[in-house]
Amino acid sequence: MMKKESVDFLVVGGGIAGYQAVLSLLPHGSVLLVSRGPLSSGSSYYAQGGLALPWGFGPEDCERHVQDTLRAGAGLCDEPSVRTLVGDGERVWKGLLSLDVPFDRDSDGTFLTTREAAHSVPRIVHAGGDRTGFLILSSLAKKVSEDPAFRFLSNHQLYRLRKNPEGRVTGALFLGETGHELLEIEAGATILSTGGGSSLFLRSTNPRLQRGDGVAVAARAGCEIERMAYYQFHPTVLDIPGQAPFLLTEAMRGEGARVVNRKGRRFLFDYHPDGELAPRDVVSRALWLESRKSPEEGIFLSLTHFPKGRVAQRFPQVYRHCLELGVDLETTPAPIRPAAHFQMGGIRSDMNGRTTLPGLYAIGEVASTRVHGANRLASNSLLEALVMGSRVADAIGSVRHLPETGDNSSDEPDQALLPSVDIEEGWSRLRQILWDSAGIVRTLPLVQKGLLEILEMIGTSRQAPVEGGRFALGNGLLVARLILEDILTAPVAGANYVVSEMPAPAVKNKD
Ligand SMILES: Cc1cc2nc3c(=O)[nH]c(=O)nc-3n(C[C@H](O)[C@H](O)[C@H](O)COP(=O)(O)OP(=O)(O)OC[C@H]3O[C@@H](n4cnc5c(N)ncnc54)[C@H](O)[C@@H]3O)c2cc1C
After folding, report:
1. How many beta carbons lie within 10 A of that of residue 83, not counting itself?
2. 89 with 138, same domain?
3. Strands 169-175 vs 367-368: parallel, antiparallel or unpaired
4. pLDDT number for residue 496
5. Could you tell me which residue ranges the FAD-dependent oxidoreductase 2 FAD-binding domain spans (predicted)?
6. Does 508 fall in a domain?
7. Which one is catalytic: 160, 280, 348, 470?
8. Domain that holds residue 291
């Protein structure tokens, strides 16, 4: 017999977007946050560089932030949405200050701001040097845990959305820890904040399980999904054989780190007049092209010209991690290679999180609000998570829908259509296919080949007993299909376009 519970507001996903929504909804009713894992399971926990704000908060500061966002977004941002995002910056900043998030200050107590690529001015606040995400998230989690109207349920994987006969979303079903038994939650409003899907790619900066589940479940329920072609690849990701990719924050380049080849040449100026401070998509593409020209050369991020002790003091977490892997950033340039980092598209939603399904809201990286266009401006993601976590409550907090029954989920079959390929093999194939066909440089034949291979794996699906691991692979395959199909029709913007021919690798000189 399936367990069933009832709540006013159901939030799925416990990153910064989810926790901010919980905080904003608690004055209006009971909130249940269901997540696949602990705080460290989502990307928010690992955000290093910081939070972009229209620092100064005057009309000119806001306008500059809007213009930088639009420029980085390469023509695909929705300008009114960007204005809303930036306009709410001061509100979320005040909210964070009221939570005592320990943002970094100088010896006079003035908040420190830094600059990152494609920002025209320093406007990024940070905490703990490079531990901004963790410190914001843990402050939010601590605050909401004090409220008796809040409950947290971990180790539950979103399975499907619950709907009433009129098609209104009235909660969701989850697979529990064993991956077999189902839990049904009926809710007045359902908010998805399950984050992005960059771990569907072979090389990714995201936690391992960020594989686009929210998009898959929403798509199956008939919700509009858009712009899945637009993934952002981060250029400066540590590349040590046998080690997981590890992000070297963009704030390093913002503060003067150099991208060099083995000879120490700063080749990025060959690609863009802003060199290291060019938009992320431009830099990643330049790294890709450069490594294709001379694969053995290697590409490095160098901070060796920083004053002694500065790297360890300003970027303590990154410095320590690299040191453990044998790279002392104070003295040695770090080998880098791009990796998938951020999903710009997702569940189509407005600036209050409303999706195309009544009763369902989407916020944070899982949502496509069109504020990032074809290429997100650095550190605008935490801003989006906080702003949308607040704005969703503005929309639904005052209009309470009581949880309704009426879904026949209690008769949920214990069978589902699931891929029958070996799960481990399926994942490694999927990640390789997306990396090869939907990566930094895409060609039509590769995209078509990738799509055929994904469809072939989907084609193995059979009715089988519901099981968490196989269900997750089914989600991954569906999202991969959406990405590849979208690439075939997506407008050309930023660096996410299909080239007619793969640039030729350098011909090796036989001598
Ligand atoms: C290494 C790294 C550094 C970054 N640095 C910055 C930065 O400095 N500034 C910036 O603005 N952005 C940065 N980003 C991007 C930013 O961290 C994310 O875009 C943002 O935190 C997303 O927040 P979110 O709340 O939408 O999702 P997440 O924080 O990813 O949280 C998703 C939540 O959903 C849960 N979940 C996922 N699937 C399921 C499921 N099937 N069922 C139930 N629960 C599920 C997860 O367990 C998790 O709790 C960085 C990202 C990474 C990976």
Report:
1. 18
2. yes
3. unpaired
4. 60
5. 8-382
6. no
7. 280
8. 238-337
The protein residue whose alpha carbon is closest to atom 21 in ligand 1 is 44
Is 280 an active-site residue? yes
- Do 455 and 381 belong together in one domain? no
Pairing of strands 169-175, 498-499: unpaired
Neighbours of 166 (CB within 10 A): 9
Ligand 1 pocket by C-beta < 6 Å: which residues? Answer: 12-18, 34-37, 41-44, 46-50, 132-133, 157-158, 193-195, 205-206, 210, 213, 247, 342, 364-365, 379-382, 385
Facing residues of 169 across strands? 163
Closest CA to 498 of 279, 278, 229, 234: 229
| Spatial CB neighbours of 433, under 8 Å, sequence gap ≥ 6 | 450, 453, 454, 480
CATH number of 350's domain: 3.50.50.60
Residue 290 lies in a domain: yes
For the chain, percent of residues with pLDDT exceeding 90? 87
The one-letter amino acid code at 267 reads F
DSSP state of 431: H
415 three-class SS = strand
Structure-token pair, residue 446: 């590769």
pLDDT at site 413: 59
Query: How far is Cα 173 from Cα 465, in angstroms, rounded to an integer?
Result: 16
319, 345: one domain:
no
pLDDT of residue 509: 47
Q: Is 124 helix (H, G, I), strand (E, B) or coil?
A: strand
Helices assigned H by DSSP within 438-501: 444-458, 468-489
373: tokens are: 């266009």
Q: Are residues 62 and 156 in the same domain?
A: yes
Residue type, 364: G
Dump pLDDT digits (tens) for 321-343.
999 999 999 999 999 999 999 99
pLDDT at 500: 66
Expressed in percent and rounded to 5, the helix, strand and coil fractions of the chain are 40, 20, 45
Residue 156 is assigned to a structural domain of this protein: yes
Number of domains in the chain: 3
DSSP structural state of residue 204: B
Rounded Cα gap, residues 16 and 13, in angstroms: 9
